[in-house]
Every structure is written in structure tokens, then in C-alpha cells.
Amino acid sequence: MSEHAAEDREGYDPHAIQEKWLPVWDSLAPFRSGDPADARPKKYVLDMFPYPSGDLHMGHAEAYALGDVLARYWVQRGFNVMHPIGWDAFGLPAENAAIKRGENPLTWTYENIAQQKASMRRYACSFDWDRVLNTCDPEYYRWNQWLFLQLFERGLAYRKDSAVNWCPSCQTVLANEQVVAGCCERCDGAVTKRKLNQWYLRITDYAQRLLDDMSQLEGGWPEKVLLMQRNWIGRSEGAKVDFAVEGRAEPVTVFTTRPDTLFGATFMIVAVDSPLAAELAALGGTSAEHSTYLEQVRAVTDIERQATDREKTGVPLNVTAINPVNGERIPVWASDYVLADYGTGAIMAVPAHDQRDLDFARKYNLPIRVVVAADEDPAVTGVATADDGEHINSGPLDGLGTEAAVARIIEVLRERGTGDASINFRLRDWLISRQRYWGTPIPIVHCPSCGEVPVPQEQLPVTLPALSGDDLRPKGVSPLAAATDWVNTLCPKCGEPATRDADTMDTFFDSSWYFLRYLDPHNTQSAFDPALAKQWLPVEQYVGGVTHAILHLLYSRFFTKVLHDIGLLDFTEPFTRLLNQGMVLMDGSAMSKSRGNLVRLSDELDEHGVDAIRLSMVFAGPPEDDIDWADVSPAGSRKFLARAWRLAGDVTSTPGTDPATGDSALRKVTHKIVHESAQAVEGYRFNVVVARVMELVNATRKAIDSGCGGTDPAVREAAEAVAILLSLVAPYTAEEMWQRLGHEPTVMLAGWPVVDPALLVADSVTCIVQVNGKIRDRFDVAPDITDADLQAQAMQREAVVDSLAGATPAKVIVRAPKLVNIVLGGA
RNA sequence: GCCCCCAUAGCCCAGCGGUAGAGGCAGGCGACUUAAACUCGCUCAAGCGUGGGUUCGAAUCCCUCUGGGGGCACCA
User: Fold this and answer.
1) Is the alpha carbon torsion for A25, A31, A33, A39 positive or negative?
2) How far is the C-alpha of A256 from the C-alpha of A726, rounded, in Å?
3) Three-state DSSP state, A731
4) What is the model's pTM?
5) Interface predicted TM-score (ipTM) over 0.90
6) Which of A84, A195, A243, A629 could form a disulfide bond with A518, CB atoms 3.0-4.6 angstroms apart?
7) Can you give the distance from the CA of residue A342 to the C1' of nucleotide B66 in angstroms?
């Protein structure tokens, strides 16, 4: 590496200091957090753990640089910071690699983990290496299975038949997040639906609490993420209304957010793919038409189906429903614009006041009746009106506004026993079954006589059989199903032959509670120790990409509430503060091999050194903004680090010199910058912290070259402050400076410099004088000047007297010591 | 279609009611050097996307529009 490590004139060599300090830090282990005798207050700083797909990339480098600033800052502030790392090590890429290489996925996974771990060490991440966990280890996933059984026992894990995303070319189900615009994210093939019996977690039971508890997160989480979660949970208030159906004993219930428009319902729609539709078709003798239409709908890919401007389609079922409030007979249709798994899978159609219903009504010539007065007739304009207004054609609701009409109709429905107020969520239960190998086996045995039998605790973990290569090739069912030795077992209850559940869990299950396992990663008795959880949790600071704004964070919040209900946690929200870092782009777009704009982290580190890259990441802008690597200058970062480093060589006083007698101007700069930097770190303004340190370096340089000189104690104080502040971002350079300043390692535990409040007050402040808001003069005053003195002085200033030209001020606004504004009356 | 965020020197960004600029990149000039690199010093540069409003005073608060980015999209 000598070709890029060319030393500058004075010898700042980033690569040499990396080699020098790494082994020292390894032996000092300054970020170990597990000592029970440690009296420091505790703080939990968490970075989202990586998926081990190859080496670390630029995105990791940004995220971990930012997390490190926070973790290192709190250590300097005297906290015992737990800053753990591990690997989200189950998942499909490992399985695909294993098929290609004819191996078990474990091999590829562990190779990548080893590589990432080495890169993190070189990158000087302040992790507590004693707490490492890998979700693919049986020691970890056994507790996934334990947790699953806890959920199962409480009825929160259940199986049902449902249409799931299916990729025909990969021969496997896909998670919703793996379906991008109707296509498989890996092979780009069109995704279809397939009916399968799958395991679900009843997250919908927690919908209201997931919504309500967001109040705890206000201010700690980005508003944007809270908004996305609210939308995802999608609470809507309305009513359920029962419509009797001719020839059917049971009524059909619909959910509506506009029960006030019930008198405008002119037909009913049921979701074409719902069991109800098939049943009603049979009732109306239209099964053939229904089936034909259903097949047409199924043939349409998700991409086409999701197009918003798609024309509405449907088929009449030849069934009649009765409007419960006016006895009107209305036809029932089936359509695909009504979703089978939202609400009741059936709606009342009010074409005058719902655009979708109107589109449908116009296409099939169904009646349109206005029940909320509006200027324009939807039947003519083709635009449904949804505004508040006076109700008409609505019997008891006539004359009422929407709010009153809603309340009234709910009363009416209740009195008649044909409906009630109701709340619906768009959140669905979480499908966790995967027909994959590289995941946690679901710890259930299917017994012909006992049914679903949980694997007893003492038999956990149910470990994966060692399959590799072609055995893992997707065949439409889990590869585990073909591992007969593994699948065939005895029922734990009756001892008769039975089979294991052959599916594995969604890997989001693994990551929904990993922050708890870090407390105690080697615990063989329980998933985690509740006493430790009480000490360390909730996580005070979580750092990660906004990609996980919904899924991972929602699932973690759900698990936390379940564990709280079980009595193992004394809090209900896992992450108090959340920082979402932006992405690292190149020339305005995401880096990718196919685009040819991929910047390799290891190349950057080789060329500029670790500290310069970390500094560039932190300095590029606010942490939540994207960084365009084309806009940053790692060479500039390195130049700055060399400049800072050189200061240490110019300090000629001895360590421990009392700064009190030092140059007061420099001391004031130092203390002000240390003070402001702390506030900036806590406000996530890391780029500003770097700017402040640059400012301090500039001031110190000036003091050495053309001010008080290198012997002055204030220069030592300033240089030491630079080293400590820099230790948050550029630990190698900071450590080297610290040593050159005559200290023992490590600067990471040096402690935040103590700020002397007396040094934060300026000697003088420039006061500006405005006349009618325009600046007319400025002069220096004491910072503690009174309003009266300041006004008196300002009124006597020559420039002020001139611009007043004898006029009498109507009003004088004084904000000592910075401003006087003289307002002239009238004109 | 609905909702959210952003807009400050050539560029990345501070400032978030009171002097438009903390810091960096790029540019210019100079010092060091035989010369260059490196380093150091000095310097140039925007009136805060647009139009209105509130205020003694607006880059900062409110509204409009424009331009960029993001989320949700037949959820009844």
C-alpha cells in the first residue's frame, strides 16, 4: 500500500497509524460493556445489524460512522455504552449461493461474516465484540422457536389458507417486500398468487396499541417514519351494516366509512375471489359466469392489476340484497376492485359519492342517487362528490351534515339490530412461513391424531438438517420436506409417527427481538435475562436505514408488546430515539454494478485511509440526507486530518499543564466549540461538529504561528480538545495525536473536556442599530449591558443621529446586547 | 390521485425571528521550491426558488405557485 500511503512532508501516514493502533485497541478493548462492577450509567446505542452478503459497502460505512459518533460520544460523556453488533445471517442469498457452489449455506454465510467482521475492525467500529450473535446459529434460533411457541400458546400464531405471492420461476413464495411492482425482485418474473396453508402472527390484535404507543415516539423518531407506520396500520372509522340477501339465511355485512350515505347505496359488490362470491354465485345460478370472470382476474398479473387507471370489471351474481334502512332491493355484483381480505370483503356501492363505485356504475348502467347535496350531478360529470353537505333523499338523515348524519344512522342501525359503529385496519396478519431452507424451522409437529403439536421446550432447538447444493433447489415445497429423516418424527404427545412442519420462518422474525439477545448472547437458560433488560432497555439510540421504516420496526414494536404482556419486559416501545441515515449515491443515483457507478469501500479505504472516509461520511451533510460521493472530497478530509495531527507536534508544553494561565482568546474559542459540539452531537448535527473542529484547528494553528505560540498552555488545551472531539469521527488520528501530546492510550476514554461557563461569555458583542429595520450603525458593547444603557448609547451615535435627521422615534425596540431598532412613526 | 419533505455563493452545506456564512470542495493571488507536488497565508463569490401575508424587523413564521425528492396508491 506504499504507493498511496506516500507520507507528506511532516509524516502523517494514515495507513501506518492504522497498523499501529489496531492491536493496541484490541488489547485495551475500550468498548467492552459487560462488567457487572462497572459503575458508569448505562446507555444502549444500537446499529441495525447487517446481512452478510459479501463485504461491507459504502452504505454500511456511512451508517456505522454515524452510529459510532453517538456511541463514542456517550462513552466520552462517562456512560457505559452497550454498542453491539451481530449478523442477520439467515436468508435466501446464502441459499442461492449454496446451490451454485454445491455447499451448505453456512459456508458462504460464515465466509462473509468473517470478511465483514475484519472490515469493521479495520473501520474502527466501537463495537463490543463480546456480544456478537449470528441469527443462523442454533444458539440463537432456538430462542426464535421458543418465542414462536410462546406466541402459539397465546393464540398469536395460527395457520390459515390464503393466497400468497408466488414466483413461478423461483418456485417459492415471496414476502410482500420481495415483490417489487408486481415482479420478483430476484428474477424479475411476474408474481402470481397461490393458495397455501401458512403460519401467521396475529399482529392485527395489536393494531390499536401499535398506533396509540406512537405517542411515546413523538420527538424521538423521524416524523416521516411515524407517518409511514400510521399509514401502514391504516385505521379507519365507520360502520358495519347488515344487508339481508334474498334466499339466504344470513345477512351479508359490509364495512363502510360513509354510513351516512346508506340511502345512496344502489348496488352491492363482493370481492370476486372471496368464498362469499362463490357462494352467492351458486345461490343466483351464476357460478359459471363467476368462475369465468374469476379466471380472467387471476390471469391478470399484479402489475396490471395495480394500474390505477384500469377499467373496472365485474359480473352480476343474480342475487338481491335488501337495504336495511329503506327496504330497497339492490343487485349484488362481484368485482376485483373489492379486496377479499379487507373489511368484510363486501361493500355497499354509493356511486354518487365514491369515485370507484361511480366508475363501475357508469360502465354497467347501474343507478346513481345523490344523497348529499352538491352543485354538480355526478351522474353527469362522472366525478363523485365526497364533500360534507346537507343530506337529501335520506329519510331521517335529511337536512343533517355528514358528522351528524353518521351519528344518527349508527343509532338507527343499532336500534334495528342491523349494524353498528366499527373500526377497520388495513394492517394484515404477518405471514411468516417460507418454503426455504436457510431459516428457523417452525417447531411444530403435525400428528394425524393430535393435530398441531408444539415441540417440547427440552427438545429445542429443532436444528436444520445438513442439506447442500442441489438438495436446496426450489421445487415448490420447502427443501426440508424432502429431508425424510428429518421430517419424519414421533408425535411428542402420543408417540405415534408424525411429521415436522417443513417451513422455516421469515427472517424478519429473527430481527424482531435481536436487540434483546445482545444483553446476554450466551445465555443457555433463556432468550434473555429480564433483569438485564430492566437495566439496559429500551434502546436509547437506534441507527439504521429508512428502508426498514415499516416492516422491521413495526415487527419489533409488536414483539416488544407481546413480551411486555408475557411479563418479561417492563416497557412497551423498544427504541426511544431513531436516526435514519440517508443513502450513499454516486452522480445522483444509487450505486450498482450494472450502472457502472459502484464505488468500492475497500478501494476508498486503501486510497485515503479509514479516518478520511469516516470523516467524509460524517461531514458530507446532515446524517439523514443522501450523500453523493461525487460531491465529497476524501482527499480534503485527509488534508484536514493531517493539519489537525500537525498541531500535536507543535505543542511544546508538558502534559498536565494548567490551562488557566493560557491565552484567554484561544481558551474562549476552545470552550465555546466544545460546548457547541456537545449540543450538535445530541441534535444529530454531526457535520456541524466537524466544522466546529475545523474552526478550532484553524484557531489553534493561528495561535501557534502568529499568536501566543506553541508553549502557551491554551494551545495544549486546544490541541487536546481537538483530539478528543476528533476521537468520535477519526479515532486513529485522534489516538496518534493523543500520544504525541504525551498521553497514554486511549483517547477514547479521555473524557469529554470540561467546559468552564466563565469562558463562554464573550468580552464584547457587536450591537447593530437599525432605523426602520435598516442597519445604520454597529458598535461594540459589553455583553451584560442593560437595555436602557444600550438605547442611550445608540441614540448618540453619529450615524444614527444623521439618519434620524431630527425626527422623533415612535418606538424603540431594544434587545440588549445585540440590537436596537428605532422605528419612526407614520411615514 | 392523496399525503409528506426540501430549495441559502460554481458545488456540498451552516444559520431556523434580529449584522446572510460556521466549515469544506472548486476558483483566483501570493509565500516556500531550481521547478512541481505538499504545506501555509490571503482572496473572490450568494441576498436566501417565485409571488403574497404576519411583524418594528423574515432566509427563518403563514399562504400561493414552480422545481426536486420521498411515501401510499382501487383499503370502501
Assistant:
1) positive
2) 59
3) helix
4) 0.93
5) yes
6) A84
7) 39
